[in-house]
Specification:
- This protein has eight helices and 14 strands.
- By secondary structure, the chain is of the alpha/beta class.
- The chain folds into two domains: 124 residues, Rossmann fold, CATH 3.40.50.2300; 89 residues, Winged helix-like DNA-binding domain superfamily/Winged helix DNA-binding domain (Arc Repressor Mutant, subunit A, Orthogonal Bundle).
- The strands form four sheets. Strands 2-1-3-6-7 form a five-stranded parallel β-sheet, with helices on both faces. It has a four-stranded antiparallel β-sheet with strand order 8-9-10-11. A three-stranded antiparallel β-sheet has the order 12-14-13.
Length: 223
C-alpha cells in the first residue's frame, strides 16, 4: 500500500486529495503544520511526501530541505499555487522529485505519484537509511554521512537485518539464528553482545540503534 504524508493547510484541498487517493487504496495522513509533519516523519516514514509551499508555521521549501538532509531518497512532490519558473527551479533545487501547480486534476496527480515511485523503486530497494546511516546493498557498504565505515560480515548482517526491519524490534535469538546459526549450529549468546558492542563503537554509538533490554534491538529514526 502507498502511504502518503500531505502537508496542506487548506482543509478543502487536503480533504479532496485524501479522499481521492484513499479511493485508489492509498493510506493518507494530512497535516496542517510543518511541525506536525516533522514529528510524524521522525516516528515513521511514508512511501511519499506531498508538500504545499505556504504553511502557517513556515515554508514547504524549508521542510523539503529538512527532509532531504535526513532521507536522501524519500520521494517528495510539491503541490502548490506558486507556478512561476523561479519557484519551480527552487523547488527542485531544494530536493523535490516533482512539482505540481494548483489547480490540478486528481487522476493526473495519482498517475504522477505512480510514475515517480516506479522511478525511485530501484534506488530505495538497494539503499537503506536511518538517521545519518546508510547501507548500500549493492556495494555491501555502510556509511555514516559521506564516510564509509568498515564493518565485518557479521556486523554488516546485523545492520542489514535491523535496517530492513526499521521500527520493529528484532530479538536476540532472531539475530543469532539469521547471522550465525543458519546451519543449525549452537552459537554462544555472548557472541552477539560482543559484536554489537564493536558495531556501536564503529558507528559512534548512534541514537537510532536502540537496545531493548533483555530482549533485542531496534533501529528507528530520531532526527
Amino acid at each position: 500500500m502507498i502511504e502518503v504524508y500531505y502537508a496542506e493547510d487548506d482543509e478543502t484541498i487536503g480533504k479532496s486529495v485524501k479522499e481521492y487517493l484513499e479511493q485508489q487504496n492509498c493510506k493518507v495522513a494530512v497535516f496542517d503544520r510543518i511541525t506536525d509533519v516533522k514529528k510524524a516523519l521522525i516516528g515513521h516514514l511514508p512511501t511519499i511526501v506531498l508538500l504545499d509551499w505556504n504553511m502557517p508555521d513556515g515554508q514547504g521549501s524549508e521542510l523539503c530541505l529538512w527532509i532531504r538532509e535526513r532521507w536522501k531518497t524519500l520521494p517528495i512532490v510539491y503541490l502548490t499555487i506558486r507556478g512561476d519558473s523561479h519557484d519551480i527551479v527552487t523547488g527542485f533545487q531544494n530536493g523535490a522529485d516533482d512539482y505540481v501547480v494548483k489547480p490540478f486534476d486528481l487522476a493526473v496527480l495519482y498517475s504522477r505519484i505512480l510514475a515517480l515511485l516506479r522511478r525511485t523503486k530501484a534506488v530505495t530497494d538497494t539503499k537503506l537509511f536511518c538517521d545519518d546511516l546508510m547501507l548500500d546493498k549493492e556495494k555491501t557498504a555502510v556509511y555514516d554521512g559521506q564516510k564509509e565505515i568498515v564493518v565485518s560480515q557479521p556486523e554488516y548482517r546485523i545492520l542489514l537485518i535491523l535496517m530492513e526491519n526499521k521500527g520493529k524490534t528484532i530479538t536476540r535469538n532472531q539475530l543469532l539464528e539469521q547471522v550465525w546459526d543458519r546451519s543449525g549450529n549452537y552459537v554462544n549468546d555472548n557472541t552477539l553482545t560482543v559484536t554489537m558492542k564493536r558495531l556501536r563503537e564503529k558507528l559512534n554509538h548512534p541514537a537510532c540503534l536502540k537496545t531493548i533490554r533483555s530482549f533485542g534491538y531496534r533501529m528507528e529514526d530520531t532526527q
